[in-house]
Amino acid sequence: MKRFRESEGHATSKRQKNSYETTLSSQHVDHYTVACFCAIHEELAAARDMLDEFHQCPPNVPTDDPNHYTLGSIKGYGIIITSLPEDGYGACNASLVAANMKRSFPRIRVNLIVGIGGGVPNKADIRLGDIVVGTRVMQYDFGKTVEDGKSERTAIPRTYDHLIGTTLTSLRSKHDRNPTRVPSILQQKLGKYPDTLRTDVPDLKVSQTGGQDTQHTVEIHYGAIASGNQVIKHGVARDKLAEELDVICFEMEAAGLMGYLPCLPTRGICDYSHSHKTNEWQRYAALNAAAYTREFIEELRVTREQVALVSNPQAQQSTLQERRKQLLDLLRFDHIDYRRLTIKKHHSKTRQWFLTHPDYKRWLDPAGLKENNGFIWMNGKPGTGKSTIMKFAYLEMKRSTRQAGEDAVTASFFFNARGEYLERSTIGMYRSLLLQLFEGYRDLQVVLDDPEVIPSSQKDCPSLVALKDIFWNAVCAPGHRGFTCFVDALDECDKQQVRDMVDYFEDLTEHSTDQNIPFRICFSSRHYPYIVPRYGIRVILEDQSGHSKDLENYIKSRLHILDSALIEELQLTLLSKAAGVFMWVVLVVDIVNKEYQRGGQALRRRIAEIPGDLSELFRDILTRDTDNMDQLLICIRWILFAEWPLQPVEFHLATERMKSFVIGSSKGLAEVTKSKTPTVQFIHESVRDFLIKDKGLHQAWPELESGWQSAAHEDLKQCCDLYLNYSSVVEFSSNLIAEPKPISRSKHRAEVSEKYPFLEYASRHILDHSNAAVERVPQD
């Protein structure tokens, strides 16, 4: 069906088109830089009356945009006017209209709300027909129920952006010397239609005290506006809210719009939000607000680029695509998915239970979205296997949606405490999730075009605040398409960053659920005593029967013992001592197999000696024998304090040992990752916690002094220094410098990496280790 866009005429005013109006052919969507939002038909009619000319709807407005637009211009500015559905006023409908408009008209620079509102007569001398300009908007019906059933408002004040603020200051300064042009604008636009300008309606405020004033001059009041989803028609309730929030006007759309984009609300006062509320003043009040809005638009100072007609849409689109590609490239960073790729694949007989778990199914059930806001959080002890489950669930969801042909995107981020800053920070998480979302839904890249979020002059990656705004806008963009995120290992990120992130996602999931947007988030972490989610589903991993069955299956399949009765006995013992910790089971099964291969006579005694706590198990592994302790210490130091995770060949040269040394001399606490670029790391982050937080290093090496970290860096510095002074390395470097022909950087790097793989690390980080060592160890 062909979509309709109003291009001329005025259905509600029942009159012919004004002689000063002209209808032009359609312009490109990028021509329109100012948007006006209206709620009811009287407001829309008044806003249309202010246009100098009308335009036909551009052909490149998306066909799935349900909004109705009136397009035109005022003093050369491309103006777009849109309204809410009939009887569909309120914050939720307003935000949906704004989202569709923003998608269809990406160059909108200024957003204005034009219409009517209810005044607060006791706050100022506000008369019917006066204009209230909202310098701040408070949502009065947004909050939570606290103790004793009391309501606590949690909404934050909303305000306009910098351009609107400076324009408002300029216009107010003019009004300090000269009266507003609202009457003259109305006379100019509607002088031929005197019925439209009638003001012979009793002033309801004054009539309450017995008087009447129909000659009142329109006044402009600047102050806070209260916005909510319910009509205020009670004087006592009005006054109580007005006093509490310090507002002078009530309305129903600004909170929804300003939660999505910064706006300036302008309201003509048509009643006093009490039981005598009528519609008689709506038309006149709406016209006054519209006239003020025109006066404001004429005061705007927007750049030529933002106002000029687009003469070459194809070139403009090409530039836009290049800019988006540039921004997407800025979101990328090295090792963006390194942690996920290095998580070992789950055992073939484990993890399947999670997909059929009632809580997981409830999280995915669309009918339960309102109940849990699409929020689930899996908690577990260190080493229980949370990351393995998260990787399994993420890959299974991607596979199932792809096979089903669903229009949905699944993204993931796995925090990595052992990685570089972006791998263990929320700014890296937002960058990764955004990149996956934009690559999955390419049309959502339009949110990158907003100059309010990312200025066109910006050449580096957006800030954390901007990334959060972009993520919110992208998730809440119209279309109601599915987006699911798996975020693992929150405990490997800074605590304050995690608090802020959890608050952000709770607000986002609450908002997206209200808008019927199928956005879901799955977190996993160790038990957090200081973060308590407001809502959502909690899954305690070690308490799940399916998890216990996984441990049982792993023990059965990995114990290399032929005696079935002995296996049953050992299985019960190991499950009891494991307390749900998968890492403990993996390590102990290996110990049991080795002990059984030696003869197994003392097997039961050895199992009884194994501590049940994971940290104590690490201590037992380190201290049970004292073989190769020097090798073990240098191995641990390199893994703990290397400036980046070393590749096996670098590690071999740094320690003068082969790959087998990594596993052998670390006593099984380190491993070589199975990734495209393998590196050496601890088998689990809990090993690092044991060595440092639980003082495992000092228990294994009591001779370590308080400045052991500085001493460790001194040893690593000496390793780098020795390597750099090898005769072959010195000779190679000298020949490279003396090379008469210029050599490309890439060729240079490839040659160096091949011949001397540890040279780059040693040359780049010898000073880092030296600086870290200087605190305790004197430098020669």
Automatic annotation (TrEMBL):
Nephrocystin 3-like N-terminal domain mapped to chain residues: 350-526
Record field: compositional bias (Basic and acidic residues): 1-11
Gene Ontology molecular function: any one: catalytic activity
Species in which this protein is naturally found: Penicillium malachiteum
SUPFAM superfamilies documented for this protein: P-loop containing nucleoside triphosphate hydrolases, Purine and uridine phosphorylases
Highest taxon in the source lineage: Eukaryota
UniProtKB keywords: Repeat
Domain Nucleoside phosphorylase: 34-257
InterPro entries: NLR-like, NPHP3-like_N, Nucleoside_phosphorylase_d, Nucleoside_phosphorylase_sf, P-loop_NTPase
Record-given protein name: Nucleoside phosphorylase domain-containing protein
Annotated region (Disordered), positions in chain: 1-23
Pfam families: NPHP3_N, PNP_UDP_1
Keyword Repeat (UniProt): yes
GO biological process, one term: nucleoside metabolic process
